[in-house]
Design a protein that fits this description.
It is a single chain. With 430 residues, the chain is of the alpha+beta class. The protein is built from ten helices and 19 strands. It is elongated and about 75 Å long.
């Protein structure tokens, strides 16, 4: 068990693209051409086969300033309302969506909500925010830092991808009148660097496999680092079970669990017969966390193309999930998520990567919402058990002080104590 507080530094020394003090990122915020401070050094130890995020950096994002958060296999952000727990998970999800190729406007529909309140516009009325992360994997630690201008218009103004002590890709906004950034990526051939324009509304790292041929060792290094980062980002699954939606029958479809777990019954219809061992573990988990006996968890067809989920109580008695409380439904949904994988969840799986090399990181804001201490403890122990196998990682947020205290008793859990610091999640509701 590890308990830590976020490490902080002044934005001017936080690494990644830097704006002028007191202003948002502008054209002068482009990454430097020399290796970034803290860039990953050449790896000497074994690295995981499955790429995964191991650090989140919020240099200037909403209420966070110069914050660095290590991400362990089980990481929980704890603190009172307004301390910035949800903001940290929101930043993780935003990076994941950018890594999946989404446009900046889709990821940040209200970009001013991301701009720190202390940021003052420069002479050109520019303000913005900066986020970054590190992904570990076969290529060793790879860093990504991004500077985003939020006003007067939304655009990426600086990006840096670095690894093994070298800047592999960097972009900078040179001409504000054009919707592009100037990019330079490592070549190590007859020309040490290749330059070209990239769109200013997407993450350049996600575009590298489309722009780099891989003919030189340097190009292959850029491709490997970019692909490791993209695979790590696309392995994130934001999970926010909505009990009100889980009670209704679900139509049969793809059998992939949605982030709100609305189609829980449909997924149970699929998974109950796919892996008997995992299903038995789910039944045991539900029995431990729900009131009354539980002999099975299953879905029943209703004859109209839909199915409903029920708990088999034994002796022929079945309880529809519609009769369960919110806490029991959230508990059941989270247990199912922790016992499945990318093939069952509505996650942006990477088809080009073998399933054995893909991991899963679950983002669970309000992890302890509607749960009692017993249920929270059971889920954390289940997550720890699955995490030891290397397939599942969990980043969650808890607000209840007793829940946070209980987490500290579970081996392998890292608790980031934000205390009463004012983080302020201003995420727009979707």
């Amino acid at each position: 068990m590890t308990v830590s507080s976020p490490s902080t530094s002044h934005p001017s020394t936080a690494g990644g693209p830097r704006p002028r003090p007191g202003s948002g990122p502008g054209p002068d915020a482009a990454p430097r051409t020399d290796p970034a401070p803290g860039s990953a050094a050449p790896a000497t130890a074994a690295h995981p086969d499955r790429p995964r995020l191991v650090e989140l950096r919020l240099s200037a994002f909403a209420g966070h300033r110069g914050a660095v958060f290590p991400l362990e296999p089980l990481t929980f952000f704890a603190g009172r309302s307004g301390s910035g727990k949800s903001t940290a998970l929101w930043a993780c999800e935003a990076l994941a969506r950018l890594g999946g190729g989404e446009e900046l406007g889709e990821v940040f529909p209200e970009p001013l909500a991301c701009v720190p309140q202390w940021a003052r516009p420069d002479a050109q009325r520019r303000r913005g925010f900066r986020i970054g992360c590190t992904a570990d994997g076969p290529e060793g630690p790879v860093r990504l830092d991004v500077a985003v201008q939020a006003e007067p218009e939304l655009r990426v103004v600086g990006e840096r991808l670095s690894g093994s002590g070298r800047v592999l890709l960097e972009t900078a906004l040179r001409d504000p009148s054009r919707p592009v950034v100037q990019a330079a990526w490592h070549t190590a051939g007859s020309s040490p660097v290749t330059r070209g324009p990239l769109p200013d509304d997407r993450l350049g790292t996600a575009l590298m496999p489309l722009r780099v041929s891989g003919r030189t060792d340097g190009q292959r290094r850029v491709l490997a680092a970019a692909e490791q980062m993209v695979v790590a980002l696309r392995s994130l699954f934001p999970c926010d079970p909505r009990p009100g939606r889980m009670r209704a029958p679900a139509p049969l479809g793809t059998g992939r669990l949605l982030r709100g777990c609305d189609n829980l019954a449909e997924v149970l219809w699929r998974t109950r017969t796919e892996c008997g061992r995992r299903h038995a573990q789910l039944v045991a988990a539900v029995h431990a966390g729900c009131a009354g006996p539980v002999a099975d968890v299953l879905a029943e067809p209703l004859g109209d193309g839909t199915v409903r989920a029920v708990l088999d109580r034994g002796d022929g008695m079945r309880t529809p999930l519609a009769m369960l409380g919110d806490g029991e439904l959230r508990y059941l949904a989270l247990a199912l998520v922790l016992l499945t994988g990318p093939g069952v969840l509505e996650v942006d799986a990477v088809d080009e990567v073998p399933a054995a090399l893909q991991g899963l990181t679950v983002l669970a804001d309000g992890f302890d919402c509607a749960l009692d201490a017993r249920q929270t403890g059971e889920l954390v122990r289940l997550a720890a058990r699955m995490g030891r196998r290397g397939h599942i990682r969990l980043v969650g947020a808890v607000s209840d002080a007793s829940a946070a205290a209980g987490l500290r008793e579970v081996p392998g859990v890292s608790v980031v104590d934000l205390g009463g610091r004012r983080g302020g999640s201003r995420r727009p509701l979707s």
